[in-house]
Amino acid sequence: MEKTSRDRLGKSKTFLAREDVRAKAPLAAQFEDCTQAIRQLHTALNAELWASKEEVSLEQQEAEAKKKALRTLVDRCLARLIAWGHDTGAVSRLLDHSLRRASKPRSSALTLLKEFSIPASERREAQELRDILGLGSQDSDLNPEKFLAEAEEIINDLFDLQPTLLDPFDDDDLTPIPDAHQTEAFDRQYAQKAFPAAAPSLVDRLLAANRRRRQNIQSLKEASKASLEDEAESSEAAVASQVPHQGQSDQKPRHGLALSRIRGYRRTSAPSGSEAGASRTAPSTIGKETFWSNDIIHEKESLTSAASTGGVQAVELQLEPPGLPVDTKVKDSIPFQCQYCRIEVPLELDKDTMTQEDWIAHFYMDLQPYTCTFEECSRAHKLFGIKQDWFQHELDYHRTRQAWYCAKAECRTEFETWALFQQHLKSEHPDIRTDGPDLRALAQAWQRLSLQPQTSAQRQCPLCGVPYKDDAPAEWRDHIAHHLEQFALLAIGEDEASPTSEDELIDRNDFVETYVDDQNERYAAPSVPNQAPVTEEPAGGEDLEADQPMPGDEDAEDTVEPVWLNVPERNHEFMGRDNDLQHLHEFISQSGSICVVSGRGGIGKTATAIEYARRYEQTFSGIIWIEAENPNGLADRYNMIGTDIFGLAVEGQDPVSFFMNVRAKLGGWERRWLLIFDNVEAWDHVSKYIPRNLPKTRGSVLITTRKQSLVRTDTQTLKRVLHRIELDPLTPEEAGQFLICSINPKVFLDDAPKHADYDLAVQIGELVERLPLALIMIAGYCKVSRATLEDFHEIWEEKTAFRAKQTQRKKSVVIEGGLDSSIDLLWDIGISELSVPARNLLEILAFLDPENIQKDLLVGDHTEEFLEFLNSTEAALYKRMIRQLSGRKLIDVKTNEGGAESYRIHRLLQTKIVIDIGAQLKFDSAMTKATRLVRKRFPKSPAIQAPAPQNWKRCKEYMPHVFGLLRAFKHAQRDFHGFEQTEEMADLFYDAGFFIWDSQANVHDGLAFLDAAENVLDSEDVEEDPKSPRRADILCMSGLLLNGMGCERRAECLDKLQRALDIRKHVYDAAAPAYTRDQDVLLQNAACDFAILLLNEYKFDEASVIFEDCLRHYKKWDTEDKIPFEYSKYYYNMGIVHMCKERLDEALKFLQHSVELAEAAFGKEGQYWDNYFMLACCVLQSGDFQRALGMHLETLKAKLEQQGKHSKGTILSTYAVGEIEYSERCIDLATASSWTDEALGRARLHLARLYKRQAVNLQDAEEHERKAMEALDRYSTHAPRWVNDINEPIMTFDDLMPTDEGRYTGNMLLKVLWGRGRAEKTVTFVWHMEGSEVTVPTGL
């Protein structure tokens, strides 16, 4: 043991003494430094222990105890450090090898190791080290406890870093490959012929892997070439070392596949004998055909992948790994430097021999030929260099069988396939539909991981389609691995140099056509008799996601013509970013991935995304671009996927259901698609638009954002699919080239460094921190102003000096706007030379949607003096203004397919302008102009607040600009006290809020507009009468929006509608008896809305008085057959009153009539099924359970067909059915929808009780009950005391629901109500209407 340690220590010293090895394996060398430093300290402490034999004093005993504690700490540090070294491979060159392309974790590990290691040049012998640590002298200043404490802390950090070191991510820049598209085209053709069963996404993955391999090899070739040139200059031995040895040739094939690489086609034999020199460094022969030996047949299990078992014959190995590049018989030939990783091999420090098998194992570690073959893999980009690691990944993540489980108490049976499960349902449970529109949700609900052992069912190779058996895993592992090795080997041996003999070559296309066809013919798999057709089953160990395509979805695309949606035109001035684009493609080329490109404002995120979409457009057959900087209206832009690509009709669809339908369609799209969200401000803005089953789709998502921490990886799935790229500024050379070529279009990129102003261009680039946006603005300024770079430099210096003398106001602007100081100064320079009209136009643009400002919005027949410069008759002036703004890169001009012109302005520039004009007291003027322009385009809402779907299209077109005005309004409220507010602003904000209510869009946005409108009316500039009709309009809309936001807003909702009703009464009474029909309609609608809220408060008698008065007015208007909707409302509401007052016969009669009137008004759609739902609830209260269940099922079917499964009405009907399957489906849908928390809590509690009643899924039951009770704790305070006193959670949840949104789907609450109603008290309630007073008894 002692001898072995001494031997190893001697070899380590030899290793450390070689500075060239220290440079090439720094982690191993540094680790050796650390261990030797700790060992020396350990030796010194133990020597001190054995030196202390004589009797000692008490003080000496205390000192000795202290030293013993130090020895224990040293032992612990040494043991942990050695354990870390063995775990990570730092004890050999393995860690250097695994981190060879991962610079960030490599740098982190190296930094930690250097922090406590003692450099070799500063080492002391054991006795000297004892003196330094104060073990032999009391005069030392060094604290040994502190030294060891720091060492232990560093070791802890090393262990924290260990998971990253064991699974690193390659982040080094790779060398671009010339004519990469040609090699990739060949690879694709080869894959399609050799792997006929491979899915397109798997082929894409293989191509991306070979692309990375070629880039790695190209980078190493260049490094190797430089290294050999240096050696040749310094030593003749280096020249001798490059003499070809056995199996090598100095001839290189041109861009083509050498015949010598394919066994059976080789026409010349390898030279015999060995001519290898004695150099320790093997020459780089990457790209030489000599590595393709046809004389080596590998029989070692860990190295071979050829398999022939069970009558299934795999294609035999044709391409061979390279032979051992040195002659091991030559003295000192081991170790040598590997030309594929630039690290000495063997990797073990104490190994001085290497066999052919050892070399091939190392070669595959470098090549990393293995990648996951499952389409839905979330780590598809991961390459493996060890076969068993790859296979273990597939076992852990994918090769676990899924099954469908019938949870019925009488069955409890598992089925292997969906088809078998369907047959079971049809034969044993005919009451469960297996062909309806909700088939996919049904399949999802019953799918589980199989609890049964794997069977010997036939399977197929994912690449060639050859069947194999589950009970021979080693054989089919090797079979698939052989394919992967063969494909990876295509990346080796390619070079552009010409060969000496044409007969050594074969054309790529000829190779594909002849070789692959020949192999298929020779090794055609025998047919398997009675083989069941292979059905596509979900792979992996996870349950199906909500949007995963399931049986019944038949949306296969028949065309290969690419689909583009809103993708911006390519910027032909774009340059640089090649490495960023390559890294981006490495991630995005893998299906199911998300890549976040982040960087500061002006770094070029959007331009990089556009360039990627255009440069790699052939990778995708569908690319979708969504501008996400403004979250408002994002749903409309996303829904264009449904209307423009999938041809979905949006009319009559519930907005939430439509959006989720679009998301499901996108998730199941068979094309290879890319979804790009540009300029995202928050993850919550876009996360709901990404298909929930993204890892299992053929799509990828690209996000650009200024926030590096945009996405928090709080789930394992997200961690696996998410990648991040942080954009850096351009290099000094790129910045200089860009300025020279942009200002001088005739100068080519390669000639830019020769230009006289190149050095100045580089200097100016440094002034603006090489930000692309700043460079674009400088080039635009110079071109429009006809200024030279020297002129610009002088202006910059003047502006900088002037700004330095100003107050700190500018600094606050930079902070508030998130604006880079250099860009802020550039905008000042650009804006300062604008004409007055152009400046006025720019100020207007600052208030509008930055992404799409239509020319038609700005130019028109304006009669206002302040808009005269935008009159359509001033076409020449308008063109000059646009030229000034676009030329200085203050705006971008876009033209759509129809020829319509629009503009884009940077959000940061908008912020700067708003702040500047606010300080200059010009905010009011610009805001007024922008408001007037939008007001002219945005439709006015109907006077009687009736739905107006005919206005939706124009509203959606100009709604983003109203959002822009709202942002400016809020900004002014916060920062510019005393800015002028106008009635026109209030009207515009109200109309926007009405549109949101009408189209059932985002409720929070609607309330924001209505609150702003009310604030304007309350301002000193307007001072609107508190009893004005406009205020009543705003209050009515606010109340209706609040009614759907849950029990927490119930009191606020009631207050809003009470105030609105008071105003309506005031207006009506003031006009009587000459009131108009519109005034009467508005009053009755307000009264009816308010009375419905009284039902929520159990004030049935007060509500019935109002409903009866509404009926009197309906009768004045017309008869039932003329205005059936109004009468339907009356019978519906009064039916609820009768039901709650225990008058069930009247209730059933009234509700039935309301259903008939709704059908007369609308047919069997919308309101008809809402009324029918309430009728079913009343039937349940009457005790007819079976009829009620049938009615609820009928309602559910209709809502599924008309509204989709994600609408609130559909989810409520699903809950009302009440059985386990439906309750499970209800929770799944509600979790992904906009249902309130209290409604979801009720559904969870109901399902938990069903589980417990049937003694199934008890663990799930406990979890659902826990979440339900958490919701109840949050919201129970909003229920009346008498409800909470009953102490029945389901009843409390029922109370928290609105009356017309599921309060009476159960019968417990009504039974308590009826009991209380029988002991009611009489209270006076006075309803003022047309001079009459009515006194009624009120219950509760």
Automatic annotation (TrEMBL):
This is C2H2-type domain-containing protein. Coiled coil: none annotated. It comes from the Eukaryota. Residues 539-557 have a biased composition (Acidic residues). It comes from Lasiosphaeria miniovina. Residues 406-429 form the C2H2-type domain. The keyword tRNA processing does not apply. TPR repeats lie at residues 1128-1161. Keywords: TPR repeat. Residues 219-285, 520-557 are annotated as: Disordered. Signal peptide: none annotated. One of its GO terms (molecular function) is ADP binding.
